[in-house]
Specification:
Length: about 210
């Protein structure tokens, strides 16, 4: 009995050590299980949407072309020549920032969208059934829906330091994009002409 005691005693630390390692291994496995919901959430909310977006833009999304025009507003009390001078393509001219702000707000207005629709047919142009459902305008849209869509495919920005108004328009063909941008400039030119005539009349009355 006494002879076996040292052997048993010698094995106790080894067994205890094995038990300690087994305990740590089990604890590590428990932590890994708790992280599974995080991994699944990452896959669902990050990886899957990214793969869907890549697949959409590579294989489904219809091509869109962009037309860019940069214009400035001329002195509204100047000559009768075109009051729109273009930096890239068409034109406006160099006036106060206040006049340019008026033009910018008009180019972003619901009134402009309705006038554009009447001239170039925005509803028909952007609701081409051959284009994918996400990119195109749905058939028979309301005026509000048309305005929201056109805001998505166009942008008007004004730089007060340079006095330049930048117009960007996207469409399913380059010709369509140029048509819409050119028509926007023509409509803005009409507005500036009215503003200039009003300024000359006010100057004469004064």
């Amino acid at each position: 009995m006494n002879e076996q005691s040292p052997k048993v005693a010698a094995e106790l630390p080894k067994a205890a050590g094995q038990g300690h390692l087994l305990s740590r291994s089990t604890f590590s496995g428990a932590r890994a299980k708790k992280n599974w919901p995080l991994y699944i959430a990452f896959l669902l909310w990050v990886v899957l949407p990214t793969l869907v977006s890549i697949g959409y833009y590579l294989f489904v999304a219809s091509d869109m072309y962009i037309s860019i025009a940069q214009v400035t507003v001329r002195n509204l009390q100047g000559s009768s020549a075109s009051l729109l001078d273009s930096v890239l393509g068409k034109s406006f001219g160099s006036a106060s920032n206040q006049d340019a702000e008026v033009v910018k707000e008009y180019l972003r207005s619901r009134q402009l969208v309705e006038e554009l629709d009447g001239i170039v047919g925005l509803r028909k142009l952007y609701s081409d059934p051959s284009k994918d459902l996400i990119s195109r305008l749905w058939s028979n849209p309301s005026s509000e829906r048309l305005y929201d869509y056109f805001e998505h495919v166009s942008d008007v920005d004004f730089d007060p330091d340079s006095g330049v108004i930048t117009i960007k328009v996207r469409a399913f063909t380059a010709k369509q994009a140029h048509l819409v941008a050119d028509t926007m400039i023509a409509l803005a030119d009409n507005l500036v002409s009215v503003m200039a005539e009003r300024a000359r009349t006010d100057a004469v009355d004064f």
